[in-house]
Amino acid sequence: MFRNCNFLPGQCRVKLTHSGVCHSDLSIKKGAFPNKMKAGLVGGHEGVGTVVAIGDHSTNRKVSVGDRVGIKYLGSACSNCELCLKGLENHCLEFKSTGKEYDGTFCEYAVVYTDYVTPIPEALESSAAAAIMCAGVTAYSALRQSDTHIGDWIVISGAGGGLGHLAIQYAVAMGLRVVAIDAGVAKRDLCLELGAEKWIDFLESTNLIADVIRATEGGAHAALVAAGGSSAYETAAAYLRRTGTLLAVGLPPGAMISVPVHLVVVRGLTIRGNFIGTRQQTIEAVNIAAAGKVKCIYTIRGLSELNEVYEEMEKGQISGRVVLDIYK
Q: Rounded to an integer, what distance in angstroms lies between the CA atom of residue 314 and that of residue 293?
């Protein structure tokens, strides 16, 4: 195995071919997240490429030169705290992120820790895998925490977006019945094509809560909010059936969740935040996509177009995901 003493033990260099563009990248660029980002930061956290060198004295034998791997937002964690030992390293107090604390994937080469790269199966194209590294694992991780069972109803708001359209497919693969909430004919057709049983256009609905309760025959067992506004959270709590679970995924800047305590207590509701996913959940999300159960809808652009992509993202002009070809 070729090794390189220019890296720390446990680090490797990855020659990137593709990188997804996440709305979080734009938020980091604008300084919208707490905690300071690295000075002179290279953004991006949805990269796929090939390992070309591994640091001296590395002990991870599962990663070799020539392996195709994915790079995700979870850049490193301490591995020794209570949360890490419970398999919840995405909540570690020493969590450091790719594209924020560490240089990211909008570049030709990235240096990352071997313990935190994800193997990419041969059956999955690099461009398709890139979008799974954040949006895919976030959707899958949230669904894993939904306390739902085969045949249960889940409502996905923002269902036609980059994360929402993946959440529909993972939910269907898990045996859930999906009600998709979004707006517009194009998103309606996409959501129904991907497996949603019911569609509700929130701009056309005169009583969204009643429409969801009717569609789910008494209320949703779970609601996954990927939409970009706080009102989606408040509405979701009202259309959950008793003991339902509200999954907080979308991150509207400065938004608050305002839900009556009486509603939460009497109905026995659970409100659960979901922050990306763990290393194991990323492997599972990628493998499901490789099996053909989940297909990301994305557009290939060039790395040279990144600023234009950011502008389109701010204006809400992006449909599905954008994946950058690093060499364009």
A: 31
Whether the per-residue pLDDT at 3 is higher than 60: the answer is no
Question: Stretch 56-74: mean pLDDT, rounded?
Answer: 91
Among candidate residues 78, 113, 73, 69, the one with its CA nearest the CA of residue 97: 73
Q: Which residue has the tokens 């499901």?
A: 288
Q: Which amino acid is at 177?
A: R
Report the C-alpha gap between 101 and 158 in whole angstroms: 29
pLDDT at 73 over 50: yes
Which pTM value belongs to this model?
0.92
* Pairing of β 68-71 and β 118-119: antiparallel
Sequence letter at residue 40: G
3-state secondary structure the chain: CCEECCCCCCEEEEEEEEEEECHHHHHHHCCCCCCCCCCCCCCCCCEEEEEEEEECCCCCCCCCCCCEEEECCEEECCCCCHHHHCCCHHHCCCCEEECCCECCCCCCEEEEEHHHCEECCCCCCHHHHHHHHHHHHHHHHHHHCCCCCCCCEEEEECCCCCCHHHHHHHHHHCCCEEEEEECCHHHHHHHHHCCCCEEEECCCCCCHHHHHHHHCCCCEEEEEECCCCCHHHHHHHHHEEEEEEEEECCCCCCCCCCCCHHHHHHHCCEEEECCCCCHHHHHHHHHHHHCCCCCCCEEEEEHHHHHHHHHHHHCCCCCCEEEEECCC
CA neighbours closer than 13 Å in the CB half-sphere of residue 170: 32
Average pLDDT over residues 217-226: 96
User: Which structure tokens are listed for 18?
Assistant: 């593709």
